[in-house]
Hints:
By secondary structure, this protein is mainly α. The chain has 2 domains: 1-38, no CATH class; 40-80, no CATH class. The protein has 6 helices and no strands. It has helices at 2-6, 11-17, 22-28, 45-50, 52-67, 73-79. The longest helix is centred in the last third of the chain and has 16 residues, at 52-67. The termini are far apart.
Amino acid sequence: MVTINKRETSFEGLVSQFENGEDGVYNLMTENKNIIFQPKKEITKEDLERIPELRQIKEAIQTWEKWLPFTSGHDKYVAK
C-alpha cells in the first residue's frame, strides 16, 4: 500500500492528497516541460555494478557526448 499511495495517478486520488484540494494539483504544474526528464534518484556505483545494461547505456551516452562537439549538421542532430 505504501508504493500505491506514493504513485497515485488518478486525479481524484491526487486531489485527496492535498490540503487545498484541486488547487494543490494546479500549483504543482509548471511551464518547464523538461522537468519530467530530471531524475529524482541518482544512479549509484552499486547500481552500475549490479545492472550491467545500465552501465552499458551510461558508457554509450558518455561516448556520444564526447563525440558531439566534433560533429555538425545532420550528424550532430542524430547524435543529440
